[in-house]
Amino acid sequence: MKELVVNPYKDVNWKNQYKANLHTHANRWATGHSELDPHEIIDLYHAHGYKILAITEHLAFVWPWEKFGRSAENLGMLAIKGAELFNYLHQTLCLFETITRTADNDVIDIYDAYDEMEINGASGILAHPRYPLYLEKYDLNWYIETYTKYPCLFGMEVFNPKYQEAETWWDKILSILMPQRPVWGVAGHDTHIIANEFDKNHTIIMADRLSETSVRYAMENGHMYFLNGETPRDVVIKNIHVDKDKGSIDITAENTQRIEWITKNGRVIEVGNSFSYKHNDALDRYIRIRAVGDNNIAYSQPFGFIDIG
Ligand SMILES: [Zn+2]
Ligand SMILES: [Zn+2]
């Protein structure tokens, strides 16, 4: 018999769905990896209904926006402090707090930087894990070891328009780490060139309010789902409800054609709005949902299970 031990959507306020992007470049005081002006970026995201934005320039924290005369609050947005660490080491989105060792030549071992993130109270997302440079350098064991060692690395960028999708890779990691150590998935733009990357996906964060404390809590606890596909990305997850007595998970979603339930190694073991887990022999240690619409797909976070005989 299976018992549910990880429910990312327990006590989630489904009414507050904030559209977010946690990976964008804009050049300011910085490195020249992006030609984009931060004003242009902010206006573009605001115009497209984004409420949460982290400008994560390479090796530079473009924050607070007030430094260049902008107010996220006046736009009804939340600006998250962030930067993308490293060029040739595993690129990592460092959020909420800064660290000093942000460049390849500042660290001999990437773990020195992650140690500093832990000490300073930052949290992080491993960016585009299928980046061509990583394929041999960072194997599955590295991800398992790294996520196990560093709780501050709460997430993985499953979709990034420039690189190979990492959904399969995410399943490989979840297959080993669940239910002890969930890794929350996000989708990111990595906007360098607006036409190629902007708004190719998005992440929805369900937070009690649009404050740093609420949004950070929501992100670190997996109160999120993410979408990719063509605009308008109209799949909306309205609610995911767990009934522990019945041993079922039910999803309510709009504009879907099909709901898929996915377990170990990406295997779809059920189709439909309801999933019974208690006596489900096909179920491994996690299940996640793919809500498939016409031209877009929404992805839930994983639920975790233990076997209680
Ligand atoms: Zn990158
Ligand atoms: Zn980037």
Outline:
The protein has 309 residues and is of the alpha+beta class. The chain has helices at 38-47, 110-120, 140-149, 167-177, 194-197, 212-220, and strands spanning 2-6, 17-24, 52-57, 60-61, 78-80, 82-85, 92-95, 123-126, 153-159, 184-187, 201-206, 224-229, 236-243, 248-254, 258-263, 267-271, 274-276, 286-292, 296-299, 303-307. It is globular.
Would you kindly provide a written description of the structure presented here, covering whatever features stand out?
A hairpin with a 6-residue loop joins strand 6 (82-85) and strand 7. The strands form 3 sheets. Strands 1, 2, 3, 4, 5, 11, 12, 15, 16, 18, 19 and 20 form a 12-stranded mixed β-sheet that branches. This protein is 18% helix and 34% strand. It has helices at residues 38-47, 110-120, 140-149, 167-177, 194-197, 212-220, and strands at residues 2-6, 17-24, 52-57, 60-61, 78-80, 82-85, 92-95, 123-126, 153-159, 184-187, 201-206, 224-229, 236-243, 248-254, 258-263, 267-271, 274-276, 286-292, 296-299, 303-307. The N and C termini lie close together (5 Å). One zinc ion (ZN) binds at residues 23, 25, 84, 190.
